[in-house]
Design brief:
heterodimer, A: 501 residues, alpha/beta, Rossmann fold, 6-stranded parallel sheet, 17 helices, 12 strands, B: 408 residues, 10-stranded mixed sheet, 13 helices, binds guanosine-5'-diphosphate, binds magnesium ion, Tubulin/FtsZ_GTPase_sf (chain B), Tub_FtsZ_C (chain B), GTP binding (chain B), GTP-binding (chain B)
């Protein structure tokens, strides 16, 4: 099956990585020790053992395993066979990454793949991008190349970092750019955390704008996570993630587990079999109708314990689909199901309230049903979306469906949804206005300009790049009624003659 | 008569699997009858150790479907998959890039199969909406035609749901249908919408792709399984002699539609009636034009006890639903095989070259044209060397075909 290389950069990136790897192991049904009897994995273990085994190489390098008929059931099996995670862990401070080396999973990470420095990037994008970028370029590329060489069929890089700090944001941008240069044909997916809602870093608006500029230019697809959205979901739902492995723990643990589950869902189509393909590589073809407009709102269900349906029936599956498409489950501000069904529009007032929300336009959508979902379910949901989602005249047929046989651990089914919509403008605007306020006062700019390589004009450049893409998303909302007539047929109507050959 | 089949992409391979098991189920308990032998020869190579091997080349750019094929009494030896990753639902990527990786090994296998025995027909199974089947498939089929211009090449093409199952399906469909139309003589088209409808009238529960695939496999097998009576030389090319009209559609008495309850009274008339009804109820639209079924050519294949009488098939003699510029003799042919098919007492399949495909063609062109004029998704195709001009000429071709069918 296709392989992925996870590149985790900075504190946030590595903390997310810190919950990603234990979850991956759980998905592959690895237990901590020989004697443990697994409870969660049980459903998956017996039913999907073939699929699970076949796709183990997606996240792990098993080239050191020297028999064909391997099977891994616990950590010591992995250790014995020198299994390595396809991960590159980069942080410019030791704090987080060093926690890996104290965890149960320490042996999974190759020494070469861990790159650290002291004393961090001071929440300064320029320091991450210029100072650390130039200093660590060789080392980082070397470890990425060696990791890529261990892949037969590299499907993509998955980059994890926060936009608001210095290391993830700056060095992450730098790595993204390098990847485009060195691996132009390999997709680059970025799962990035926007600090909206957690204004704990004063210079975050600068860092976010500069890093966003790089996402626009160099990423294949971006899955933005607003910390505000993650916080809201964790307070609303009981996430209560607990892992059997000791790994990195952080106050963000519950929030990060949402990011992690989303990543597992997105990559599931490439790792497991299904009646209808959903390859991550197809995400860009389906979701990005115009170059650079690749910011996707994502969501899935079930998320928290409260959401867990007990039985699988047509109605529980449909409820779960509606949740996956509700605004409560979105990783950024967006409401996919705005329009109500006709018969629910009892009066005009209600009608107007509902349409007040429609300041958004959806240019593409994607649904992935995992586990028990059937074709009948999916056809029905696509109809629902086409009624309730503000697609444009030309985009209303642009819904991709996928079916994946293997559900997430412990569930009978789950639904992932992706949308490309103009609501990303909210994110750009929120970020730009804070950026503008800071820049007007020239607050903290000397920290940036004092870094070798950084020019003050970079502030204006990133502002323009973000403004341009914002404009593109704005333009699609304008209804365009001009139509170009179809081509005239060009045939000779004397064809109505019968000739026997 | 020997077939070499090709399954392309995710869809093609899923269907190929069901097709072969349908054929296998049909003949497995037979005692070396003529039917059995002909069928075996047609679809399988028998190896020295007595093991059967499907005469079939499986082509995919990723190995997910093929890898999970844990078999069975018969095997699939000819497998061309790279683990190259999917064709990204992009016809251009499949046609211009991924095909390079598999073309040589496919052509080699074809050469070897041709050395083993005289092969009369190549059958290609693919979906038009994706990237691998549609893109890689188009390329390989063109090459087959180049290398074997005299061979009989036919395609079974699965058409996507009209209201969308992937975002670039209409581009992929237009590009692949245009290529196949130039390269080959006959394509049997299966609309997923119609298959789904057929299943939904029969199965009350949830439907999956496998249910659709069973219908496709049943219909294909019912026309391609042997006809053992001596004067039956049915070939589907009889129905596509005109070089504009190359599309065929199948209707068959199983799985039965809502008339399932009549199945107990096993008469040909009862089998035929619901199928004819579909032709008569067809309503087509093209601009202001309202269309009723017009059939150019048709064939009826019956399998089971008692050949249907002329009277029972008299609908095919009525002028109302047939074009008037083709001599009657050529518009209808009938073939019968007295052996039961798939354990059913009577099976009836109608194969027609008719205008019922207009609605699909019209909507697909319309939806693709909307995206095209907005320039949506074009950069993915231009990246892999499919130019605006190529799009335009494919649109032109499809408009021509549509105009032809809607003016029958
Ligand atoms: N969701 C989430 N956000 C985080 C996490 N760690 C830090 N952040 C946010 O990321 C921003 C700081 O970036 P950080 O990753 O610490 O900086 P870096 O180490 O220099 O890349 C702040 O806005 C934090 O709220 C985390 O584990 N999860
Ligand atoms: N009838 C049927 N249609 C399918 C099946 N699998 C996929 N499709 C259709 O095929 C199209 C997608 O193409 P697919 O074969 O998955 O892509 P490829 O692997 O890139 O060729 C869509 O229109 C699907 O509706 C199947 O098993 N049966
Ligand atoms: Mg840090
Ligand atoms: Mg920090």
């Amino acid at each position: 099956m296709g392989e992925f290389i996870i590149v985790q950069v900075g504190q946030c990136g590595n903390q997310i990585g810190g919950s990603l790897w234990p979850s991956i192991l759980e998905e592959y049904n690895i237990s901590k020790s020989d004697h443990e009897n697994f409870k969660n994995g049980l459903i998956n273990a017996s039913k999907y053992c073939y699929e699970i085994k076949e796709s183990f190489n997606s996240f792990f390098d098993i080239s050191n395993v020297n028999c064909n008929n391997y099977s891994f059931s616990n950590l010591s099996d992995l250790k014995r066979n020198k299994v390595k995670a396809r991960a590159i862990c980069i942080d410019m401070e030791e704090k987080v990454v060093s926690r890996f080396s104290k965890s149960d999973l320490k042996f999974l990470f190759d020494k070469k793949a861990i790159i650290t420095n002291y004393p961090g990037s001071a929440n300064n994008w320029a320091e991450g991008y210029f100072s650390h970028g130039s200093k660590y370029k060789e080392k980082i590329l070397e470890s990425i190349v060696s990791c890529a060489e261990g892949c037969d069929n590299l499907h993509g890089f998955v980059l994890l970092y926060s936009m608001g700090g210095g290391t993830g944001s700056g060095l992450g941008s730098y790595i993204l750019e390098q990847l485009e240069d060195f691996f132009p044909n390999i997709d680059r997916f970025v799962a990035c955390v926007y600090s909206t809602g957690s204004e704990d870093v004063i210079t975050a608006p600068y860092n976010m704008m500069l890093a966003t500029q790089h996402l626009i230019e160099y990423a294949t697809c971006v899955f933005p996570f607003e910390n505000r959205a993650l916080q809201e979901i964790t307070t609303r739902k009981n996430i209560a993630c607990e892992s059997k492995f000791s790994s990195i723990s952080s106050p963000f643990e519950d929030m990060n587990s949402i990011v992690v589950n989303l990543l597992l869902n997105i990559t599931s189509g490439s790792r497991f079999t299904g009646q209808m393909n959903f390859d991550v590589n197809a995400i860009k073809t389906n979701m990005v109708p115009f170059p650079k407009m690749h910011f996707l709102s994502s969501s899935f269900s079930p998320i928290g314990i409260n959401d867990w349906p007990t039985v699988s029936s047509n109605s529980t599956r449909e409820k779960n689909f509606l949740k996956a498409c509700s605004k409560d489950n979105q990783m950024m501000t967006f409401n996919p199901l705005v329009l109500k069904f006709q018969n629910e529009m009892l009066n005009f007032e209600l009608f107007e309230i509902l349409f007040a929300d429609v300041g958004q336009a959806v240019i593409s959508g994607m649904l992935l049903g995992r586990g028990d979902y059937t074709l009948t379910d999916m056809r029905k949901y696509i109809k629902i979306l086409q009624k309730k989602t503000p697609f444009l005249d030309w985009s209303d047929k642009c819904v991709k469906m996928g079916l994946c046989d293997v559900p997430p651990v412990g569930h009978a089914f789950s639904m992932l949804s992706l949308f490309n919509s103009s609501s990303v403008i909210n994110l750009f605007d929120c970020m730009s206005s804070k950026f503008q306020t800071l820049l007007n006062k020239k607050a903290h700019t000397h920290h940036y300009t004092s870094i070798e390589g950084f020019d003050f004009d970079f502030f204006y450049e990133c502002q323009n790049t973000v403004a341009d893409i914002r404009e593109m998303y704005e333009e699609i909302k304008i209804p365009d009624t001009s139509t170009i007539p179809r081509l005239q047929p060009n045939i000779n109507y004397e064809y109505k003659k019968f000739e026997i050959e | 008569m020997s077939f070499l089949s090709f399954c392309y992409g995710h869809c093609g391979n899923q269907i190929g699997d069901v097709l072969y098991s349908t054929i296998f189920e049909d003949i497995k308990n037979d005692n070396a009858s003529l039917y059995f032998n002909n069928s075996l020869k047609k679809w399988f190579n028998v190896q020295r150790n007595g093991k059967w091997e499907a005469r079939c080349i499986l082509v995919d750019t990723e190995n997910k479907v093929i890898a999970t094929r844990k078999h069975k009494i018969y095997g699939f030896k000819n497998v061309v998959t790279g683990c190259y990753g999917s064709s990204e639902n992009n016809w251009a990527y499949g046609y211009n890039c991924q095909s390079d990786l598999v073309l040589d090994s496919i052509l080699n296998m074809v050469r070897k199969e041709n050395e083993k025995r005289h092969i009369t027909s190549y059958m290609n199974i693919l979906s038009s909406g994706g990237g691998s089947g549609s893109g890689v498939g188009s390329k390989v089929i063109e090459e087959l035609k180049n290398e074997y211009p005299k061979k009989n090449i036919l395609n079974a093409v699965i058409l996507p749901y009209l209201n969308g199952d992937l975002n670039t399906q209409n581009y992929n469909t237009i590009l692949s249908l245009a290529k196949l139309h130039s390269a080959t003589d006959s394509s049997v088209l299966f609309e997923n919408d119609k298959l789904y409808y057929t299943c939904s009238t029969k199965l009350r529960n949830n439907i999956n792709f496998n249910d659709l695939n069973k219908v496709i496999a049943f219909q294909l097998a019912s026309i391609f399984q042997p006809l053992t009576s001596e004067n039956d030389t049915f070939s589907i090319n009889q129905l596509t002699t005109h070089n504009l009209f190359k599309y065929l559609q199948l209707k068959s008495s199983f799985p039965s539609t809502q008339y399932y309850k009549f199945e107990s009274s096993q008469t040909w008339r009862n089998k035929l009636y619901p199928l004819i009804k579909q032709y008569e109820e067809f309503k087509g639209f093209k601009d202001t034009l309202q269309l009723k079924t017009k059939i150019m050519m048709s064939a009826v294949i019956t399998r089971g006890k008692d050949k249907p009488t002329v009277k029972e098939l008299e609908w095919f003699q009525s002028a109302r639903n047939f074009v008037n510029w083709i001599p009657k003799d050529y518009q209808f042919s009938q073939s019968h095989e007295s052996r039961h098919f798939c354990g059913r007492e009577k099976t009836l399949t109608i194969l027609t070259n008719d205008n019922n495909i207009c609605n699909f063609l019209n909507s697909t062109i319309e939806n693709a044209w909307k995206l095209f004029t907005k320039k949506a998704y074009l950069h993915h195709y231009e990246k892999h060397d499919v130019s605006i001009e190529e799009f335009q000429s494919s649109f032109q071709k499809m408009e021509d075909i549509l105009a032809g069918y809607s003016n029958l």
